[in-house]
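Internal tracking record. Fields below are filled automatically when a chain is submitted to the structure queue. Please do not edit lines marked as system-generated. If the sequence contains nonstandard residues, flag them in the REMARKS field before resubmitting.
Queue: standard
Priority: normal
Entity type: single polypeptide chain
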Amino acid sequence: VQLVESGGGLVQPGGALRLSCAASGRTFSSYGMGWFRQAPGKGLEWVSAINSGGGSTYYADSVNGRFTISRDNAKNTVYLQMNSLKPEDTAVYYCAARPRGDYWKGSEYDYWGQGTQVTVSS
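SYSTEM-GENERATED OUTPUT FOLLOWS
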């Protein structure tokens, strides 16, 4: 599975962005998907996850109520809608695919995208 993120950019505080992650391969629908982020000088942080069928979603406390994860298995794409963005959301955002395992653990993910930069600043 190859993953390619898009949709990052510069946005003012309070603004919104939608990240997309396009996957190659016919097995996309069998993978749980997750979004992680890494801010400058900090470690990798789990942000959100969705199960293979899209019926279950999970969020870190820091983004719960502001971010929404979704997927379209017909398009082999997972999305992260980010609203009410804050400066502390500034980071490189990565999507990742896992066949099974704990959704909040980066070590459970087998495939990673190259990342897309999100900068929240006035």
